[in-house]
Amino acid sequence: MSGAAIWVMFLIGILLGGHLYGLFDAGEGLLSKVFAFCNLGSGLLYVASRFAGVGVNEQAHLATSEYGNVFLMVTGLLNYLLALDAFDIRSGRKI
After folding, report:
1. CB count, 10 Å around CB of 76?
2. Residue among 60, 37, 48, 36 nearest 11 (CA)
3. Do the Cβ atoms of 9 and 75 come closer than 8 Å?
4. Mean pLDDT calculated for residue range 55-72
5. In 10, 12, 54, 85, which residue has its Cα 20 to 30 A from 21's Cα atom?
């Protein structure tokens, strides 16, 4: 069920006009590297979107683009938390 939440949040972020930050995009500052780390947490969704060119161009003209950016960042961070939770369950630290 939580995997579906990742997909839905990612799709909402893209539909709202969110921008996927890249670690090696030229001319961007330190904060964009933090945003890129958040986006990288989306995993294969991030890689597939960057490869397909979806969400790569910033759409600042849309009123909802900042909301889309936040949706995409939270998607990655939530996926990191889910991975850590699965690791804790597998290692026996959490039941």
Report:
1. 25
2. 48
3. yes
4. 92
5. 85
- Separation of alpha carbons 37 and 73, rounded Å: 9
Positive/negative CA dihedral, 66, 71, 74, 80: negative
Residue 13: C-alpha distances to residues 20, 56, 61, 89 (Å): 10, 12, 15, 29
Round to whole Å and give the CA distance between 30 and 46.
20
DSSP letters, the chain, are: -HHHHHHHHHHHHHHTT-----TT-TT--HHHHHHHHHHHTTTHHHHHHHHHTTT-S--TTSTTHHHHHHHHHHHHHHHHHHHHHHHHHHHTS--
Give pTM, 2 decimals: 0.90
Range of 66's domain? 2-91
Please, which pLDDT band fits residue 26 given cuts at 50, 70 and 90?
low
Determine contact, residues 18/57, Cβ cutoff 8 Å.
no
Q: How many structural domains are present in the chain?
A: 1
